[in-house]
Write a structure and sequence with these properties.
heterodimer; A: mainly alpha; MetI-like fold; 2 domains; globular; B: mainly alpha; 14 helices
Chain lengths: 293, 316
Amino acid sequence: MSSAAVLPSRPRSRRRRFPVGSAVAVVILSLGGIGMIAPFLWMIVTALKSPEHLFDVPPNWIPLEFEWDNFWKAVNGPLPLLRNLFNSTFIAVVGTLGILITAPMAGYAFARLQFRGQNAIFLGLLASLMVPVQVTIIPLFLIMRNLGVINTPWSLILPALTWAFGVFLMRQFFLTVPKEILEAARIDGAGPWKTYRLVALPLVKNGLSALGVIAFLNNPYLWNAYFAPSIFLNSQDTATLPLALVLMQGPFSTGQMNVVMAATTLAVLPALIVFLVAQRWIIASLTQSGVKG
Amino acid sequence: MADLITRDATSQTFRAGRARPARKGPGRREAIAGYLFVAPSVLGFLVFVLGPLLAALWFSFTRYDVISPPTFIGLDNYVRLFRDERLGLVYFNTIIYVIAAVVLINGLGLLFAVLINARMPRALTYVFRSVYFFPSLVALAYISLIWQALFQRDTGVINYYLEVIGADPVNWLNSSSQSRLSVIIVDVWRNVGFAMLIYVAALQEVPKELEEAAQIDGAGPFTQFRRITVPMISQAIFFNVTITVIGAFQIYESIIVLTKGGPGDSTRSIVMYIAEKAFADFDLGYAAAISMTLFAIILLVTIVQFRIRRAWVHYE
């Protein structure tokens, strides 16, 4: 099953026009690749600069000085960045755990259980992917206010606990689990919950990893989110990291761009680590959802 | 996001459902388990999606300022939409973002995917794929902070290199004619890798025999691409187009960081306008009416795409 979740590794194209076409492709992709890396490189180099050399011309792309102090200044600046980092982490971790419980259950039910109305319910859930949070933000704000959770992490965690995209993704993974295995568990006397928990769930571990990473990063209330947090959170102490960094841009003048970039470097780092560790799962499951349907 | 897939996914379910009459219907126990398993997700959907959607629809027919309860005013908010000149400009900006995103992200994404699919060492493929895809995982807010610095008129790196090659410096962030371009560049730069990834996977599914057969029949590379490759990856194209459309309608924090919507309203997006009307002016009824127009447009675009897709997409 695990191999099904990994990018198809077909033998490469058998076309014979090898050198010219490929060389052109490599050249164009390299130029584009430089364009993709340069902004991050600039961020790191700037984060290590002293104020005097901020606007050196021509711009240098290799760090010539190492002002580690900038990171210290960023963390001890006008904004409680460590606190904001904690807020972001707490919200994203709890929200992701919620999704990791609710989405596989529903995905399994839609893929491998039979009950009246399941197609209609599934369609309804999927349709909610067409309703961005921006459309419903006013009632959502009022709901959170009535629940008394405005300006707390729970205003973001509660709506993040269930996620239609996660249900869809997990349904795709459970469709790869052979029915016979589940049938065998049933005949052995396992109830639906046991069959799910002890037989089906362990077979989609890759799917769970992918779901975890994708939910953490892409759920509209969690790690990378900006819009909903900017509406629900309204103080420096409760702000998430993206909110805090954007706020930071204000009090810092352009002369302190190095400090802002030090903070941005710290903020980008977790995504980079997650990417290096998990890119196989992410890439595999995202492409699967787009190509195979 | 995944609505494009819906059709397939559900028709599959329907088919599976129909093909199974031999078995004596679902067991009672299994059905109960089914409902319990989907209950949390359905509850979340009702409370945080469907409920708020209906509530927003109701608010759009009222005057509401949070302090006093909403009063029904019929279609007044919707009539007001047509007289709101700012709304016209804001929608104009947003539609430019959407069109640019669809064309550039998909055009470049497909181009890069075709190039990556060319014959080259596997390690290179891997590196290119990672490098292009990585920005899609970084918060748009952070990416916008970096680009905001790069776009600076006098101290920015981009204008420096423009001057090096002899071009005039561009007023990236403070010009009513050019700043939209900055928003577009950031959006395309962040999302092109994701589109590319989907296209790479789709291209690998195209049977090589088909291309070879076309080649033997004398089709040139472009005819081959247009007549065989594009139809074979049509499902990925629709998936990507839907995602870019829905994503571009939501562009928000990049504008806040880059231009704050200015100068004037020249870069302001529809989402910024909704937030301003609702949470700065406390004109919640009117803001709800605007958000309903956004929903209607997304719905319409999705339906139109399904229609085209039904007529056009190739199924194996």
